[in-house]
Structure formats: C-alpha cells, structure tokens
Model the fold of this input.
Amino acid sequence: MTSIAKPPVKHPTARTNGLGLTLRDYEGAMSTLCAGCGHDSVTAALVQAAWELELEPHRVGKMSGIGCSSKTTAYFMKQSHGFNSVHGRMPSVTSGAAAANRGLTYIGISGDGDSLSIGMGQLSHAIRRNVNMLYVIENNGVYGLTKGQFSASADVGSTSKKGEANEQQPIDPVLLALTLGCSFVARSFSGDKRQLVPILKAAIAHKGLALVDVISPCVSFNDHEGSTKSYAYTREREVEAVHADFIPLKREITVPETGEQVRVVELHDGGRVRLRATAPDYDPTDRESAYAHVRACQKRGEIATGLLFVDENGRDMHDYLKTVPTPLIDLPYEELCPGRAALDKLMERYR
Amino acid sequence: MAATNVKDPQYYHKVVDCQWACPAHTNVPGYLRLISQGRYADSYMLNRQSNVFPGILGRVCDRPCEPACRRGRVDEKPVAICRLKRVAADHRGDITDRLPKAPAKKNGKRVALVGAGPASLTVANDLLPLGYDVTIFEKNATPGGLMRINIPSFRLPAQVLDEECDYVIRMGATMKYGTPVTSLKALLAEGYDAVFVGSGAPKGKELELPGRWDAKDNIHLGIEWLANVHFGHVERIGRRVLIIGVGNTAMDCCRTAKRVGATDVKVMARRGRKHFKASPWELEDAEEEQVEIVENHAPKRFVIEGGKLVGMEFEQLAWSEDAAGKQVSTVTGTVTIPCDDVILAIGQDNAFPWIERDLGVAFDPKWDMPVVDKATHQSTRPGVFFGGDAAWGPENIIWAVAHGHAAAISIHHHCQGIPVTDRPPAGMTLVSAKMGMQSWAYDNDYDTSKRQKMQHEELAKRFTDLKVEVELGYTPEQAATEVARCLNCDIQTHFTDTLCIECDACVDICPTNCLTITTNGTGEADLRGRLSAPALNVKQALYVSEALPQTKRVMVKDEDVCLHCGLCAERCPTAAWDMRTFDLKQAYAGMVAR
Done:
C-alpha cells in the first residue's frame, strides 16, 4: 500500500522494446498489498518478462481467482484483458477463454489457497487438458487475507506467527504437477529475479500449461523464524537444480562454454530455452528424474528450484479437441454456427 | 567499494543539487516548503541566514542553483528557484524584529571594510552581532556597490536595495559615504584590528581598435556608462547603438539604451549563441525588448567621419573545430554597421592603485592581482582580507555573499587569536519525516506542472521610465504551482542495512530505477556498469550500504534522478528505508572550530 501513485517520470535512459514500449508501459495500477509482499516482486518480474518478450498488451488475458495473489493481475499490463473469477475457478474460466480465443496469451495468477484448497480440482483438470497458459502459483503457505491461517502448502512443523505448529502434510504443487503429467514445471523465488524472469519468459513461450510455483513470502504473517516460506529460510535452503536462460527467436546463443551440462529445448514459437543443470546428472526432460530430485531435496529440508521439467512435444487442449487453427471468435458466424440443417445431419449420425 | 559514510554532512548536502551549487549553500527546498505553507516571513529569514539579500537575489541572482536542479534532469525545465525567492521577499511583511542585533557591549575590536557592496555588507552582517565595531568606507553616497550603480533599476528597484542594505547597516555599522580609500597604508595606520577589501572590479575593459580615441564622446565603457545613467549624468544616447560583448553587463547596457532614446540596438557577438556569457533568461528579456543579437561579428575599427562616429567595421567570422577540438575562426567578409554610439561591454578589471606595494600584501606579477588564500580570504599580510570581485576578479553577487561569510570567520578568528586556517566544520541534523502510516512531513506526490512563466510589464510602459520594474513577480497561484514542482531533495532516503530483508520491494517500486541490490564491486566504475539504470550524469554519487544481512550483497542507490517520492520507504516492510529531513548546519563567524 502506498499513499501516492508512481510518479509518471521515466529514467532519462529508459529504453523501448521492439513495439516502442518502455518497461513502465507494462505496469498496472498501484499495488494495495502489504509493503514488502513477495507478490509485488512477482509482478515486477512479470512486467520485465512481458516487456522483454515484447508481448502486445492487448493480446494478453490476465486471469485470476480470489486471494492476495489474485489481486496481482491488476498490478501489471493495465492495457490487457482480464478476468477476476470466483475463488478457485480461474483454471476453468481460462480454459473457456482459451477455447474461444486461442490467439491470446493467457497469464493465470493464483495462490496456494486458491489452487491447492478450493481450486485443486480445477488446477488438476487444467493440467490434464493441458490448457495453453502460464499458471503462476504465488505460494506463501498462509491465508494472508484472513490473517495468517496455515494453507495447504504449509510444511509440517512450520509455525504460525503466534507459534502454533502445523501438523498436516503439505501439498507440493510441483510434485502434484509432475504426477499429473504437466508439460512444464518450475519453481522459483520472488526474491530471485535472475532466476524467475527467464523462467516466466520460457513458460509464456511454452505450448501447453506451464506451472510456475513461486515461493512468495507473506511479510505480514509468514516471514518469522518458525516459517519455512520466509525470505531468510528460502534463501538458505534454495537449491537451483537447473538454470534456464531464455533465448528468443532468431537470436544466436552467445553464452561462453563452461563445461557444464547444457540442454537446449526448442519452444513452439521458435524461441529456445537453454537449460544449465547445476546438480550433477540432472535431466530436466526426464519426468522421473525431476520427481526424484524434488523428493530428495524435500527429505534433506531443501527447496528445489529452477526449471525442473519441460516436455515440448506434448499436445495441448486444442490438439486433443481437434479444433480449427483459427480462434473461434474469428470464425464467421455461419461457420461457427452452421444452422439447423447441419445439426440435424450431425444428430443423424447418432441414431 | 567501501560503504558510504552518510554521517559526513557533505554526502547528503551533495544530494541537494541546488544547495550544493549555491555558493552560499542556501537551503532551497527548505524555503520552498515554507512558501508552500504560506510562511513567507519564515522563508525569507531562512534565505537571509545564508544569502543575506533575498529580495535582491530573488531578482538578479545568476542562479547557479537552477542549472543544477534535479527537476531539470527528469523534466524539461528546473524549478524557478530565483523567482520563488522573490515571492518570499515580496510577501514577508515586517521582519525587522527578527533580524540579528548587535549587543550593547562591544568586544573592543575594530574592523574596516572597503566598499559597501555585497561582500562587505555580508561581513558586517556576520560581525556586528558578535560585538565588533565595523566601519565601512564607500566612495559613493549610497550603499550597494555595483548592485546599485551597475544593475539598472528596471531590474532591481532602489527601494528593494535600500531595505536590505539597511537591515545590515542599522545593526550599527559606521558608514563613511563619499570616502574613497586612497591609501591602504593610511587606513592601516588608523589601528584597525582587521581590514576587509570588498571594493569590487570597478574598471571596464578597453578595446584598443583604430578610431577608439577619435570620437570619445560616443564610445562608452559599459559599466561606467551604466553608472553615469544611474547618477543622472547621462540622460540620452543616440538612436542607433551597438553594444560590443555579450555578457550580462551587455544585456543591462542594451536594455538601458532602449530606455534613454535608442530605437535600434544591436548586441555584437564574436561567437555563436551557445558560447554567450549572458544568462539565457537575460538574452530572452533583451530580445523581448526588440534588441537584435548579431552573432559571429568581430569588431575591427571604429568608422569616424569628420571627427564623428558614424559606424563600426566588423569582420564576419565562420567557426569550425580544429583537429584538437578547439574552435577556430575564418574571416568570410567585412561589413560596416552604421551607428551613433558604441558601448563596450567586454569585461571588467580590478584596480588597486590605492594599495601600496610595500605593505606585505603580495601581488601576482602576471595579473597584478593580490595573492589571496582561497579558504581564508587572507592576503599575505595577516589581518588584511579580500572578498567579492576584489579577491579573484568579476563573479556574481551570490559569490560575494559566500566570500563575505568566509572572510567574516577569518576576521573573527584573527581578532580572537585563533588561527584563521581553523575552519569551523559544517554540521547537520537528520530527522525522520515520518508522521504516521504512509504520511510524511512533506508532500511526496509528484506534481506534473510545467515551469511557470514570469509576467512582464508591457513594453510601452517599460520605456516611459527607467525605473519601471519589468518583472512583475509571480501571482499567488503561480507561486503555489511552482513550489509544488520542487522534488524536496533535502528529504533524504536514509537506509539502515541491518533491517533489510532483501525483499526487493524498493527496487521494484522506484519509478526511476535508482536502486540495485547486487554483489559489491571493486570500484565505482564496476558498480555503475551493473546498475538497473546507469546514470547519464555521474556527478551525483552512488550510495553503497554495508553487506546486507541475508545474502551479503549490497544496496546501491544512484542519487542522480531520485525523485524523493518516498515510495521506497512506503513499500519497505521493515523501515530499512526512511525519509529523513536533512538540514545542513553551516558554520558562520562566531562558531568556534574545535
């Protein structure tokens, strides 16, 4: 929360991207979240990623549900489309929007409450359908908006602000997504934009559902010593398995050889993501190895981050449904709704 | 890079660009805020503390603060600081009971000041309240020096000058008007404990060209001619007038000429406009009065016919850059411009025929100027001090004031047996501006208004009387708008590294990308290359914190285009960033060093 709007002053050296837009042009309304909220850093990372990817603001749909996290969509790309849905229903609203207009870039923002409690079924089925979208979970382990109760992602033994320990098993969205067959799974930290921004860019360029679990500390209710989702705890326990560098279409890879194990995965829009494994023998294109790595880290009390798994060969919702390449909203009415005769003909097939 | 020491008052002082650029270090944002609160008298007194003549300087200051103003780096034009100073002076009301007073009991020390210009009056202003017996020798019948006889009254009305000189003189200075000092030896023989020379640079520079002395009556030296107009010795000038030179004196000459009979006035410049010495606003004001400014003309000779000046011959120049980047001229032609009078305004010189060279006051043999210490203003003879234009040649009024303050410290030390090289250090206060949740002791919202334009008297009316002031001052609405343009650079962003949790909230919100959290570097150049937005202006410093608690990285703040909007502090969850009001405590005479 701030008392004033951000002054409309640009740095004298402010650059523009290919669309002639500056970084400031990708900002949204002033955040009303608590000062120091991790979600505001995720917003800044999204602004940076969208500016660097040269996304046209009017070709983006920002989707969200309910919660502190779901307010985020108001704080970036003020010229984009947006839908703030019912609690936990962001995935189905996005599925509908993507079905109707496959031409837009969908950025869904949710939280651990919105996605892992009330909206868990919705998340699971969006993964199953492989809706082409970026799905960000701003994960802070508490219900901040209702003053700090444990959420479904709170770790066993982590304490509330008043000192009470959580005893129930957490749901880890990364393990969940790997199990459900998600085609792009990453975990990052709001306090580490060098890692987060390239992951977001690769996730936006990915075809299918890209799930990015972002540890985004709640400064008001979950940034204390007993917390396992605090700034200090995350910094101390974070283990980056794979560092992703996003390389846009038609740009040469000019990274010096380091002798590290490097994999380049081509994304559907022609851009590439260069995956640099920092853990030995880690293969980010192998689902089993990713799962094992995250589990092993969990056992050691570490937090596995980085672009953990990517499969660019899968089919997305439109492939399964065999829809036409043209977005449905762009189809002429006669084609979209061919009339009584066509319906009768179709029905005849089932008689 | 080592962590920045913000306990040194000079660090935050430098962030306040206007105050840093002002020779007298006037607390500009402080007095602007007082104007915004309608506290004109308080604003005037805050000004007077450092610059002594707010009413005068609010009209004719050279304004080094304005090119320095941070607003000019993020917006088209800087804050109209000078004009706002005049607002404070115009609306101050009666402040006489708030002026410093001389004590009834004197300290027994006698000081002689030569010349009653801004430098001497500042010395008197600082020494009288300490109990000194101050005597000022002035060759004219009124105080003010060049401020009175060389600045035309349509820019600086006599009444404004009288009031502010009187504030000093009425503290109890002994004025010896009509008393030019003709011998320093004789003055020293009168047993003064210290002598201050503030006699200015009263001699106009000559232009020795063919014909110069063949029509003396129509070829004038700028500052002498202005003085003659002031005293009423000159009431008319020819219809066509050429001004040679393009400094601020030339601007005063051309505009004065328009008021004493000239209709066709040309200012002749050797070089192109961007090399002119005159302040841009003075050029604009002259052009508004239909003075023509002619570039690239070098005077060659005065054209005399029948013992009468009929014109002047000029070489037309074209300028280019040579291999070393130096401007070189080539003559492209010759032209004669007819005229009735020529005014030479190509500079001023000092003249010390009255200082005997065997008194121990050493003179530089090359320039024939006294050898004066830059910090103490003392000559090579202890107890003899120089300031204003008399010290190192022509400067501006605000420099004379700064010299006067520094010299007063030295004179005080000299008289009290303290080494003059002991300079009292500057101090500061730094107080949190936080008044509550997201509430500050200043208006932190950015005002997008453009610089307000000064209203001028209409042309016809100006030329009827030499004394009609051209600038009418800001209306109350204009003043309120202009004050809101100030960025409050004195409300400092103060960082406490031990509180930082590195959440990036400040980095994310900063509208001008001033903040970066990064690993420390080997030096400033290395760090500058890794900032979120490297500065174009590298004169402003980088703030570097100690290693941060969690990652041992450092917080780096580029002070260059910080808007002091306070959003970093509003978004900081731990109050590691705080907005703090910085107040430079300048040392004046009577504050003992040690």
